[in-house]
Each structure stands twice: as structure tokens, then as C-alpha cells.
Amino acid sequence: MKHIFTAVLLTAILSVAALAQSAPAGSVRGTVVDQNGDVVTGARVELREIRTSTKNIYLTDSSGGFTFKDLAPGRYEITVDANGFGRLIKPLLVASSAISGLELRLSVGETHLVVSAEIGGRQERQNIPQAVNIISAERILERSTSVLAQVGKEEAGLNVQMTSPTIGAIVVRGLTGKNVVNYIDGVRYTNGAQRGGINTFFNLNDGANLSAIEVLRGPNGAQYGSDSLGGTVNMVTKFARFGDNKAEFHGEFNPSFTSANNGFGSSAFLSYGTNKLGGYVSLSARRANLLRTAKGLDTHSAITRYLGLPSNVLYDRSPDTGFTQYGGATRINYAPRSDSQFIFYYQRGQQDGGKRFDQLLGGDGNLIADLRNLMLDFGYARFVKQRFGWFDSASFTVSYNSQREERVNQGGQGNPFADITHQYERTSTTGFSFFLDKQLPKRNTFLFGGDFYGEQINSPAFIVNPVTNVTTISRPRVPDEARFNSAGLFIQNAWQAIPDRLRITGALRYGGVHYSAKGSDSPIVGGRALWASDSLRVADWSGRVGMVARLAQQFRLAFNYGRGFRYPSMTDLGTLGLTGDGFEVDYLASQRLSGTIGTTAGSDAVSTGIPVSKQRSETSQNFDFSVRYENRRFDTEFTAFVLDINSAITKQSLILPAGSVGQFLGSEPIISQLPSGVVFVGLSTAPVLVRANYTDARLYGFEYEAEGRINDNWSARGNITYIHSADKANGVPPNIEGGTPPPNAFLSLKYNRSKFWVEFYSTIAAKQDRLSSLDLSDRRTGSPRSRSQIENYFRRGACVQGLTSNAAGTCNGTVNTYTLLPTGENITQVLTRVLGPGFVAAPMFTSLPGYGLANIRGGINAAEKVTIFWAFENMFDQQYRNPSWGVDGAGRSFTAQLRYRF
User: Which residues, other chains included, contact 401 with Cβ-Cβ below 8 Å and sequence gap of 6+?
Assistant: First the structure.
């Protein structure tokens, strides 16, 4: 690690010391035409240099022509806007010679998009070997009616993960959380303290700040480092617009309302630009109130799980699902010269009032599960320069990322007298990254780069006894003051082996990490430290090679191979506490009690005889093969993939020797133990879990997407995604956090006119009956229940909520003194009805049903600067839920948005 960091800094210092060299200027001449080949006059043609965002603007003349002169060689992006046509965006490589005869063809309502699949450049989507999703700013706003993670809907290879109404993420090829890495403008957003199956802070990014979200499906560790086993999500913020000869001031306002949660909010975007300075301020705020799920029913409610009653005996809108979110962003771009630019970007986001509904009435029946003060402070400063010494261009970035939360929990199935745990966490990351690129002979584009991210977590924790008000310091989820430093160097090359026929790309990275937690930082409670010293130092190679071959004018084949590498994170190594799947224990505490790894993640686990040990790195092998066809009216792509994850870190039940009841796991006592050695603590209904390199997993499947224009007004699009995951040893679903989404499809039929458009669309999912033992033991999916859990809820949570009572009018008394008020049953009758005569513990769901949602949406161009968007979703009020969702999908809902631009 020390050598990698030294190399990163040395390379940067030598590069900064290089003297800039001049190069001959280039030029671009071309014509803008419509789909019939007729010239388009008055079209706005913008040529923007990728590194510096410096732009030139030209309005096409009477012959549809445009000319840009005196251009520095480099990578550019050309954008064409004309009334009545969709925006055209195209990458362009400008050399020292002239480009002439360039024809830019516009289509009605159609947009050609580019993607940053390769660091340092942008390519048209069909010319890169990786499978890619590009979600535009318009679709981000249309889909993210409550939180940003909703943008994963309607996309091939993607899905949505919703742990709670506030917390969620994008699922890529059936993987999420620790297996999908997130970036903002090429700066790493994911950190080592991220929880394994969710991303707590993804939704603190607001869609109003983004110009696009680009998702690379499949491992991309060669460019983006660890955690990219499933894919990479890059959130692209809005550009700062420069002015022309005079300053420009622009703005946009977007008030909105959604009926599913009676949510409302607005965003404001104000920008200012001169020929050398551009900047903007973006502000947003929204309030989400109580969510109404389909038919006003909650399928996984504690009332249904433990009492066998429908949730609407107590509520139709889910309590504790409201929250408030607000934040803003600012950006300044300064271009002292046409070949260089300084960029500063900062954003802040905050969520207040959020709760883990799945740990409350939505699942476990507890009384407290707060997500307090989720806060994000993220920013970077970047310098970009063309003609940087021997290199054509260079980019240097320093960044800061602070993610903060406090979780407050009380367990015991609604025990009002149980201890209340407070766990505050703030992970602060300081980063540095750079890259330099060069056009080499024989049509090669070479890039060299590196990055370093230093992380430190501040995580004090304590427990409050609600009866005595006594406060006790407790073991945090991850050891306080733990450090996690990662670094890497990488090279990348793109070779036009046969111009416009065969493009071959590759990348190679060497990266590593150093983790350390000091026992000397631990408080001493009861004469013992809460954690011991721990450390890990590991490094490895990752790489990628791919090609795109154009076999005919409109037909392409693509292949991509990637070798990924994911080192254990702070969460893997140090977690001890309550997580989305239950209560977890770290390997050190497990070893202290002579723990072994269980065969499953459920209460049916038995010991494998394998002692718990420190986790090792995960590696992956991925193969993609794509067939692509496109013409003026029809685009389609079929991709098949195989992903092997070796030494996958999964969650398994912890097995302890007999007589472990009363022993402590961190600050939590073991309250029960099965004959098999499976143990439980009071904070969770699921068995205690431990992370281990337990399995080799294989995920394979296909993604198909198509889009066609029927005529000038009608168009259709759709996609299908199928993913199969299995343990390579026995074929059962692997215990990878987040679960595997069901096979799903999206269908759309759109009618478009100049003044309005209407789209009929549907999301369809098959039944998912391949649930892992982790899914089945998860309150959010399988929702298991046992006799003791039902009895506890009957005399505790149900009593507090007014569903049961005893003669004394008290809660937490002897269970057989209580009566279920809606039915008049006693506990024995309820146990018999819910579990059967033998009172055998079992999950409430062994599969999740399929569903089909019918929706309609549209837009109205009310005036030149005013657009109205509306959507009527889930029109038939269909119930639906995917693996690891902590809340059912929204019921019938209407959304309205007003967009005013100037």
C-alpha cells in the first residue's frame, strides 16, 4: 500500500512539473440535416471540449452548415438542438488536421447518447464493449418521485433496492450494496463502511442536480477499483454553462406532487456564465408523508406475521414511512485559457425523520428504529489541462466525502422496557486521483492514472435503559477511529484496429488496501475492551479486455472479459451489531467464543465444522457477449453474460458451543440457543450472523432491449432481464446480500406530438421462488416467525399498539393473560392458527409472487418555457415486492410536475 501511494504521488508531481507544449490547431466543418436529408437552418450547434467544458456555439446557415476553427486537438462533444427535433449528442476526436463533410442527422423526438465507459473519454454507446445504461436528466426526474434509487426502474439489467422508504440503491445484474460501486463525476462515492446489502447514502443525491446516470453492467474494477463486481454507477452532475460574448443567466424550477405518499417538493436551479466563468446553485426540498401500499395492505406487517391478521385492522397508510429531505449543490468552472480549467463542486444532502419500517410495524414489531440525521457533505476540486507536456491532456482531482448517520433501536418485538441502542457513525474520506492521456500512433488512445482514498470512521455508541435512564457505553457497529486506506494505479488503451470496423479496448489495475482498528481506542467497560486491535493489508490485479466489431453498416458484435477483485471492507471485517438482515458479529468476537460457520443463514443451520476466520478478498471472472443492430427506425441489443464470484463473502448463521446463553456479543447478551448451536440476541428475530468466504457463486443470464419508431408520432421500446444465481457447489441460491431479482420485463408504447406526448407502459415480473436461506430468514423477504417471537409480540408490541390487553391493563406481562381484541383469541389459539398445531417455526413467504403494473404518463408543452409532466402509476392497485425490500411497492398513485425554464 505504501509503495502504491508513493507511486501515485510521484507520478502526479512529475506530471505537474512537465512543461506544456503547443500543437497545431484543428477545425471542424459540417452540415445539419433532418431524417430525410434536408438541411436544417438555425440549428444550435455546440462544440464542448470534454476536459475543460470550454464550448463554442454556431447557428447553422441557410445551407445547414457550421464551422469551428482554431481548435486544440483533443476529445470533444458536439450537441445539436433544433425546434421540432430531438437533441443529438455525438463524441468527436479533433486532431491537428481539418474535419470536413461531417453530417449530423436529426430525428424527431430521438436522442443519441454517449457514455463515460472509459475514464478520460466519451464514446457512443454502440462502440464500447461493456453493457451500458444511460439514464437522462428527464427520465431521472420522471422516475425519482420519492428517492433517487427509483431511476433503476425500466432499465435492462437494472432493478431497484428499497430497504426502507428512505434507503435504497440501484441493483445491477442482481447485485447491490458492497458489490456495486458508486461514483460522482468520476470521484468515488462508495466507502469502506458501506453496509453490505444496502447503500444508506445513495438517496441523499438529488436527481435535480444530475444531467445523467451512467451504469456499467459487469465488473469494471480495472478502472473503478474494488466493489465493482456487479457494476459501476456514475452520477454525472450538471455542467456549468459558459456564456458567449455577454453573460448568460438561466434557471429552472420543478415543483411536484405524488399521491402515493402525499409527497410534495420543489427544486430550483440557477446558473450564470461568462466566456471564462460558469457556475450554478441547485436547491431542492421534499416531504414524503405516509405511504399507501396497494389495496391499503402491508404484506409483511408484524400484525400479519405474528397475529395472522390483515394490516388494515390498524392502518391503511403505513405508519413511520414519512421523511423530509433537502439539500443543494454548487459548481464553479473557471477557464483562464481555452486549454485549461479549474472546477469546484460541492453538494450537501440531509434526511430527517426516516425510520426502518421493516423493523417496526412493517416487520419485527419493534417500537424504535430511527434513522436520524442522515447527512452528506461531498465535494471536489479539479484541474484539467490540454497539451500537458508529452500528454494530450491531464486531469487532477482532490475530493472530500463525509457521510453521517445515527441509528437508534429498541428490540424485543415491541418491548417498551428493552434497552435503547444509539449508534452514531461518520465516515470521512479524503481522495486524490489523476489521469493523463495521449493519442499514440496506429490509432491508439492511451491513458495512465491513479487514485488514493483515505477513510476514517468516528463511531461512538451507547445504550440507554428506559426504566432507569442509565447510560452505558457500548460496542459500535464498526470500531471507532478505524482507518481504511485504498490506492491503485491503472492503464487503459483503446485501439482502432480497423477504422470504423474493429475497436479493441483494455485496462489493467494494481490496487490495494490497508485496514486498521486499534484496541487502544476502545473504551473499557466492565473491565474489558469493547474490541481488539485488527488489521489487514492486501493488494491484487484486476483487468479488462473487450472489442466491438462492425460486421455490416448497422450490425455489431461485442465481447468483454473482466477480472475483478474486491478486498474486505471495514463492514466485512469489523461489523458487530444490527444490520438489514439481522444481528451480525465480527470474526474476532466469533473466534473468542470458538464459533464455527453454519450451513445456512437461518435457524435450520448446523455447523460446517469450519472455524470462523478473517475474511479474504473476493475475485470475479466475467464474460459478456452482445449482438447490436441499429438503423434510423430501430435499435436493438442482446447481451448474454456469465459472472463467477470466487470466495464470495456471504452471511451465515454463527454456531457456538452449547451453554453460550448469557455470553456477550459486543454489548448484546445471547438470550437463547438452539440445540444445533444457533444463537439469538434480543435486537433481532433472526439468528446471529457472521460473514465468511463460504461459497463460490455463479450468476448468468441475458438482457435484451429494443426501441423502434413506428412512424413520426408513434414509438415503442422494451427490455427483458433474466438472472440466475447459484452456489457452484450445490446449485442452491447463494447467500449474497440483497437477493436476486425475479425475471422482469418493461414495455412501452409512446405517442408524441409537438405540443404533448402520452406513454403507456408496464413493468412485469415473474414469481421469484429461488430464495436463499438468507432471504428466507430476512424479515423483509421470508419473514420467519417462531413461537417465542409470536408470544413476545402478543404481550409486548401488540399490547402497546392496542391489539391485545390483559385484565391489569399492562404490557410485557405473562403471555397467557392477554386476549387478541379483534378476534377474542388467546395465545394458544393464535399460535395454532398461525403456525399450526405443532407450533413449528417457518417463514411466512417461501417465494414472492409475480406481478404486472399498468401505467400511463405524459407531458404537455404548455408554453415555450413551461412543461407539465404527469403520471398515473399502478392503475389497478397491484401488490408487489422484490427481495430485500423493507416496504411493499406503492399502490395506485398520481404524480404531477411543473418545469419552468428560462
Answer: 187, 188, 189, 191, 377, 378, 428, 429, 431
CA-wise closest residue to 600 among 466, 423, 734? 734
CA–CA separation, 60 vs 82, rounded Å?
10
Type of residue numbered 733: P
Concatenated DSSP letters for 657-668? Answer: -TT-TT-EETTE
Q: Are 531 and 588 in contact (CB under 8 A)?
A: yes
Quick one: 614 exposed, middle or buried, by C-beta within 10 A (0-12, 13-18, 19+)?
middle
Spell out the domain ranges in the chain.
Answer: 1-112, 787-840
Query: Using CA atoms, how far apart are residues 168 and 189, in angstroms rounded to an integer?
Result: 15
pLDDT in tens, 125-157: 778 899 999 999 999 999 999 999 999 999 999
CATH homologous superfamily of domain 1-112?
Carboxypeptidase-like, regulatory domain (2.60.40.1120)
Q: How far apart are CA 839 and CA 371, in angstroms?
A: 35
Residue range 479-530, pLDDT digits in tens: 999 999 999 999 999 999 998 899 999 999 999 999 999 999 999 998 889 9
Length of the chain: 902
* Helix count and strand count (H, E) for the chain: 10, 57
Residue closest to 868 by CA, chosen among 790, 758, 781, 762: 758
The one-letter code for the residue type at 625 is: F
Is residue 16 very low, low, confident or very high in pLDDT (cuts 50, 70, 90)? very low
- Distance CA(448)–CA(440), nearest Å, equals 13
**Number of Cβ atoms within 10 Å of the Cβ of 702:** 17
Angstrom distance (rounded) from CA 40 to CA 90: 17
Which residues are paired to 819 by β-bridges? 805
- Pull the grid cell for residue 104: 449530423
CA 375, distance to chain mean position in Å, is: 17
Spatial contact of 673 and 680, defined as CB atoms under 8 Å apart: yes
Sign of CA dihedral 882, 887, 891, 893: negative
C-alpha dist (Å) from residue 650 to 142, 383, 724? 36, 41, 17
Give Rg (Cα) of the chain: 28
List the one residue out of 689, 767, 776, 692 whose CA is nearest residue 732: 776
Dump pLDDT digits (tens) for 161-193.
Answer: 999 999 999 999 999 989 999 999 999 999 999
Q: Is 868 exposed, middle or buried (0-12, 13-18, 19+ CB in 10 A)?
A: middle
Cα 126 from Cα 105, distance rounded (Å): 17
How far is the C-alpha of 569 from the C-alpha of 698, rounded, in Å?
A: 22
